Predict the 3D structure of the following.
Amino acid sequence: MLMGGRSSNFKPFVIGMSDFSEELKGPVTDDEVETSVLTGAGMHFPWLQTYVETVAIGGKRKKDFAQTTSACLSFVQEALLKHQWQQAAEYMYSYFQTLEDSDSYKRQAAPEIIWKLGSEILFYHPKSNVETFNTFADRMKNIGVMNYLKISLQHALYLLHHGMLEDAKRNLSEAETWRHGENTSSRGILINLIQAYKGLLQYYTWSKKKMELSKLDKDDYAYNAVAQDVFNHSWKTSANISALIKIPGVWDPFVKSYVEMLEFYGDRDGAQEVLTNYAYDEKFPSNPNAHIYLYNFLKRQKAPRSKMISVLKILYQIVPSHKLMLEFHTLLRKSEKEEHHKLGLEVLFGVLDFAGCTKNITAWKYLAKYLKKTLMGNHLAWVQDEWNSRKNWWPSFHFSYFWAKSDWKEDTALACEKAFVAGLLLGKGCRYFRYILKQDHQILGKKIKRMKRSVKKYSIVNPRLSY
Amino acid sequence: MTVPQTLAFCYLSLLWQREAITLSDLLRFVEEDHIPYINAFQHFPEQMKLYGRDRGIFGIESWPDYEDIYKKTIEVGTFLDLPRFPDITEDCYLHPNILCMKYLMEVNLPDEMHNLTCHVVKMTGMGEVDFLTFDPIAKMAKTVKYDVQAVAIIVVVLKLLFLLDDNLEWSLSNLAEKHNEKNKKDKPWFDFRKWYQIMKKAFDEKKQKWEEARAKYLWKSEKPLYYSFVDKPVAYKKREMVVNLQKQFSTLVDSTATAGKKSPSSFQFNWTEEDTDRTCFHGHSLQGVLKEKGQSLLTKNSLYWLSTQKFCRCYCTHVTTYEESNFSLSYQFILNLFSFLLRIKTSLLHEEVSLVEKKLFEKKYSVTKKKSRSKKARRH
């Protein structure tokens, strides 16, 4: 047992045999200290603390109702964390009484809390089903006017999760027409979200119908009917989604579906406008996917190389390790501008900085080829620029003896490319290069010989210089 | 007149009759819903309509607090100009000798400790009729907190026997354990450590269950209270909504879990000799902590420390304060255990312990710096 810090309170005295006139073993403590004072720590009055706390609530003591309901809430939360759905439901049963709280502030906050926790429980509890959830959601929607939209949206998502698309759509349509509640900005966004999800569901139906259409023959009598149907759907969808994507935010699935529809109907300008907006509008949060969508679109439209390079440049700044960087490098390599060639080298080194790309054989192949080309083209300065910041850690990161062994075992082609790069950057004396050379080269014999020659000729580690 | 005051009035009548119910028992029965208090108005006849100010009176959202009801008891008694209550004599349930026995049994302490508690009662004069009986028209009307005082006496006796300084009680336990191992056939010596382990486990379990039951407590009744007729439909609608939601969730809850309500009992803990899982310490002997000296027995422990060195003389309602970290862990445990039993604050119990010590070690508190004081524990 720990001996806590003791104050001068605690001076034991002797209880002896005779009466009260016996001598004490130690002096009576002299200090005129108030009871319960912590030595040297100033004064502390616990009873004062409770009074101070009640000042905030106007001098009234905290009611037991408030105390038990907040204890109930923490029990519910604890049960949810531990996935004890049964227990959570038990405590939730008692928590409903906060809807009748005499404290108006708490009474107004209750429905949202109850909805959040109750929907979690109903989602996971084994005895619950879609029926119970629907009843619960409908009840909670109609308690007060503040929560209708939010609950409707979450209810619709739940139904989507269970594959009940028609019900979800119906729900969203009902919610769309809700006119009560405050007219705040959050309400505006909620309405837009509701419309957009409805749009997404309509897109899904459109997509299915489009697939049907593609299977039909143009001369088929049903073709026109289906085509008309498809067109109607798309019109409704576009109306629903376009409002939402004007608001700054991350709307990947909505943008993708909208653009797909626009492209299908040949509205390339519209599609490009949407994508450019989504990628370049400063009010929108930085989103690498936006640039990827735009780039893929431009690729499909066979846009000029310079345009695609400018799009990918931004992606390069955000996500230098993306696999599209290899395509970017190819574009840069084929360009005529010298600054693009330099950037191409940068991009390759940038990709291989990341652990996820260390085994990417394409990247190493490109780097090997490009390094040779760059060095042949007398751009030693470029290589040195890139290598200076990396020469401290790349050797152990990529070219250690351990990697040499494991790469050779796994993929000889990869090992060769890496060895070539290693030789060019670290000279023929480096471990990786030597290890690969030592290996048995029945298939790659010629390639290895060429490699050896190139390394000797072009390595940036000049053997003629002496240290 | 409010509902807490009505409860205080009920307690006065129980006191007058000298019934075997202490104030803490009464309040515990209220908490356990054996006595209508929280939603008492539900039992009113249909014709009585409650609204307006009634809501403030009957819409109670807190359980009765011991100190609050105690104060109100005195107020009501004084207000009604009641004469001196019937005497509380030694054969009364509320007399500290009997109450101490009850609490010793409940907390699984040896019966032999009862002798010591009686001794302390005698030395402090707390068993006197005049001290115990409530006299509202006396100059300073006060009544005794019988239950808290009895428990305080037990705490003092524990301190006398074991010192409770986080040291001596464990060394004494070691001795007891050694002795018990060697002499398995004799009456075992009381082992503080074993008692602590068993008691702590039982206490923690009970406290946990109590907290869970409190968190699940349903405050609102079927008949909602509303302020004016305008509010009535809203209140009823809310109630309906809550009932519907509860009905829905009750299907998710395992119905066998909700056991039937237990009937009211005076004892919260029960210990029997036959129960082999949990040792019953009632029959254990205090030989390990007492030693013989001539005709009488003395405690092996010859030290004591006071819970309060100086009492507050200012105008606040408390004469002392309780800061946990100043005291030993054993003392804290004992206080927590007994405060939970009585459902009172630990500071209240600590204060009562200090007052008992004040009476016992009177000269220690006197202003003159006389050095000699001691106390003897003598067994006849």
Observations:
- Chain A is about 65% helix and 0% strand.
- The longest strand of chain A covers residues 13-14.
- Residues 348 and 367 of chain A are 6 Å apart (CA to CA).
- The two ends of chain A are 67 Å apart (CA to CA).
